[in-house]
Amino acid sequence: MSEEVKSYVELKNINKYYGDYHASRNVSFGIEKGKLVALLGPSGSGKTTILRMIAGLENPDDGEIIIDGQVVNDIHASKRGIGFVFQNYALFRYMTVYENIAFGLRVQKWDNAKIDARVKELVSLIGLDGLDKRYPSQLSGGQRQRVAFARALAPNPHLLLLDEPFAAIDAKVRQELRSWLKSMIEKLGITSIFVTHDQDEAVEVADEIIITNQGRVEQKGTPVEIYRDPQTSFTAQFFGQTFFVENYHDFKSFDTVEGTTNAILRPEFLKLTKKNEEKKYTVTIAEGIVQSVDFRGSNFEITVKYKDNIFIAKRTLDEPPVEVGEEVDIFVYRLLVLDGDKVHLLKNRALNEESVVI
């Protein structure tokens, strides 16, 4: 029997109120040392409140926040050993890169020689050698965020918190900075938690994702675990590219979940074919009408209407093109059926019935 992995950061039954508003509802989770974890959810889901409570910028009304085995509820933010990176950089405009990074060290009264050595080490780490005398206004958005990252790391924190760290950066630089941040945190081995509402960002950067909704934790796991096995109705609908189906019985050869007809489709759950293409599962074919065709670089996204349902399927560039208004055949491989707050993954029975295979 394997030994249970101890959490480095742990929240136990956390509740937070702002007047009558219940911002955090019995939040509990643990994060292992050295992990890079994303708090992912829509606006108002409670993710930033959780981050600020861990940082000590807000106080929970109930529950315990534990860092490295110590309850920190009553410990001041400055004494928690935490580095914090804000989405708007929060750099001092009239300080150089060097002075911005050194600021926290001067507050802590580090020796000047140690400050100089630490700042030079971090300037090199973030790839800004030779730019230490520049001011924030002389840097790009990506460079400013790297400086903010270095400033947070300067006092050697045990935990790094990042609040929407890429929100103020344009798309191309954001992509580069994601990869850079992931590699830097892996190199440093520092436990890190970042808030985001961007699913692509969470999937690309995080070791684990915590899904939040209306102040609750819906699910925690690796990106692959959450995608393959959503545990709640909200997660099934929120995570990934999804399309709601009011009556999944419209599609043939699926088992029935009593008491519900609602389901979720994803593009990879579907196979779309032209009328003159060979079909493998002819008995279970449905017919739809193409509403739009959108080129996505590596494939085409085909929006299809079937009865009262609208969803997207994908076709490769090598497959014969389809046109708007064209009648096409649809085979549904699987469905996520919504049963209250539960989710059932159903596979098309045709996949196991040789009698319907050509």
Task: Report on this structure.
- 23% of the residues lie in helices and 33% in strands.
- Strands 6-7-8-3-9-10 form a six-stranded mixed β-sheet, with helices on both faces. Strands 13-17-14-15-16 form a five-stranded antiparallel β-sheet, with no helix packed on it.
- It contains eight helices and 19 strands.
- Helix 2 packs parallel to helix 4.
- The two termini are 47 Å apart.
- It is an alpha+beta fold and 358 residues long.
- The relative contact order is 0.12.
- The C terminus is likely disordered.
- It folds into two domains: 225 residues, P-loop containing nucleotide triphosphate hydrolases (Rossmann fold), CATH 3.40.50; 114 residues, Nucleic acid-binding proteins (OB fold (Dihydrolipoamide Acetyltransferase, E2P), Beta Barrel).
* Helix share, percent: 10-25%
**Succession of helices and strands:** EEEHEEEHHHEHEHEEHHEEEEEEEEE
Q: And the CATH topology of the largest domain? A: Rossmann fold
Residue share in β-strands: 25-35%
Distance between the termini: 47 Å
Look at the structure and name the CATH superfamily of the largest domain: P-loop containing nucleotide triphosphate hydrolases
For the record, the count of structural domains works out to 2
- Main sheet makeup: 6 strands, mixed
Order of neighbouring strands in the sheet with most strands: 6-7-8-3-9-10
Quickly give the structural class: alpha+beta
Topology, please?
Elements: E1 7-18, E2 21-32, E3 36-40, H1 47-55, E4 62-67, E5 70-71, E6 82-85, H2 97-107, H3 112-125, H4 141-153, E7 159-163, H5 171-188, E8 191-196, H6 199-205, E9 208-213, E10 216-221, H7 223-228, H8 233-238, E11 243-245, E12 263-265, E13 270-273, E14 286-295, E15 299-306, E16 309-316, E17 327-332, E18 334-339, E19 342-347
Parallel strand pairs: 3-8, 3-9, 6-7, 7-8
Antiparallel strand pairs: 1-2, 1-4, 4-5, 9-10, 11-12, 12-18, 13-17, 14-15, 14-17, 15-16, 18-19
Helix pairs in contact: 2-3, 2-4, 3-4
